[in-house]
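hey can u check if this looks right to u? its 612 residues, i copy pasted from the old doc so theres a chance i mangled smth
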Amino acid sequence: MQDNLAIGILCVLGGGIGAQWVAWRFRLPAIVLLFALGLIYGPGLNLLHPSAAIGRYFHPMVSLAVAFIVFEGGLGLDFRQWRAAGEGVLRLTVVALPINLVLGTLAAHFVGHLHWGASWLFGAIIVVTGPTVVLPLLRHTKLRPRVAAFLRWEAILNDPVGAILATLVLEFLMIQGNRHSGMFIAEIVPHLLFATMMGMGCGVFPAVLVRFLSRRDLIPEILRIPIILTLAMSVFAICNFFMEGAGLMAATVFGMALANLHVLGMSELRRIKESLGVLVVSCLFVMLTADLHREVLARLSLPIVAMTLTVLFVVRPVGILLSTVRSRLSWQERLFVGWIAPRGIVAAAVAGAAGLQLGDAGYPSADLVMPGVFALIATTMILHGFSLRPLARALRLTLSDDPALAIVGASAWSTDLAGVMHRLGCPVVLVDTYAGALAAATRAGIPTLRAELLSDEGIESLEERPADYLIAATPDAIYNGLVCARLAPDFGRQRVFQVSPGVARLDLYRGLSRDSRGRVLGEPAWNFTLFETLFERGWRFRAMPPVSAPTAGTPAASSAGGDGNRLVILTVRKGTAIWICSAEDAAPVEPMPGDIDVVMEPPTPPEQTGLA
């Protein structure tokens, strides 16, 4: 027994996180690898069958995991951001969602040959395009800001809304299945209204309570996140105790209420829930896929295949076409959004749980819901995951594939650095909160962003202009450190840099904590004042072939090395990476043909302005 448990944990945890790392390292859709891993463990090798091993607790565990996922989705649903996203996002959710529900139901009934009850459940499940699938794809493909916003917000909104819709449909079918057909409508409608009101009330009340206690310093910081996570799982369990399915609604509303009440401490919760979300998604998807029996896969008949193709090539495109009539979306954007709609973990979990309940209630064709949904998930993950980037390129909806650089702080010298990168053809954006500071860059045609990167709005604005590396170059060393610390989890701690805060402040024990700042740009002596002084003396940034290979931990040439008249700032390898020079480099960068160094050097002759 213990051996079997150890093998199961190794397969699920080790395999799931390993698949996530492989997907990140080679820019592959993680959900595809997780799905394939589950198929190998379960139907393929018969190594793992979670429902048989866990028994009657498997379904509650899956439901609890789904509750956490929809709670996470609710935390990302800020209504201010929804309104700011524009008309297109509203059309893709408010208008397209019911259209897709109806068309999906018709496709399931007339093409897939499912009975009406199972068809309605199938139609409700497939409206979900979860952020756990869409957002990783968007991170790997630099789409233009507007179309990326459409897909991102559609996924965030449809994730909890779709789960609620599937829950309501299931509740309606379960209630109707226990009554004589066509009777007790007056009882069914109040029942659904009661479920909705209870889910909303149980979600909003604890969020208001958390806000009340937080503002009065009645929750210690060490207990804030455990209390919130416990409340999320508790409202799910309480609502499900009274009515099956209402718990998902309550967990979603709880997350939405926390996001819109702006409870303090949510930034820490978001970081933790993102990490937990990766773990839960990895384990849950592997387990659900491994739990598929060969008999279920054997039910993938021609009608199921035809239904899947109908959803892909008819239901989604027609739904998007109808919902975007007379909108400002271009035909390229409508075509792209009409094709890209990968389904993910919520659809899989709801199908696995709801399909069984519907079958237990005696509905015909209920056993076809899960294979139908999994067929759609597998097809969309593979086709959409691997076609997103080529299709976006063909429709000219992508930004450059070259690594992008964000420079925070628009001074004279940082504007010159951004200009050199822009003329090299490297994607760059200059960020500042003051419009006047950005004026020179705007006149030069350099992409700019007026935003405060310590705000949620600023981070979302930067996400719409994908950047891979960041240099914080304001005169305020503490602000630079705050920006780097805030964005390090998104960029990677080895990809955020700041001008040196001063040699003394870089002491690993007495100086600024490494977790509270970025990597130092160049040498410790290269502070903002040095760059500003050199620029005033006529030094300028230029692009040139590499002069010499750098030594470990130092730039290729510096004020204390090379010819003494050149500061090597970074090395560009087109289409591959940007290596920003830092005294904290762990290993040297070996120059290759085609590499370009961006250096700061004095005017000719160098004797006019040497380093002081």
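Residues 27 and 140 are 6 Å apart (CA to CA).
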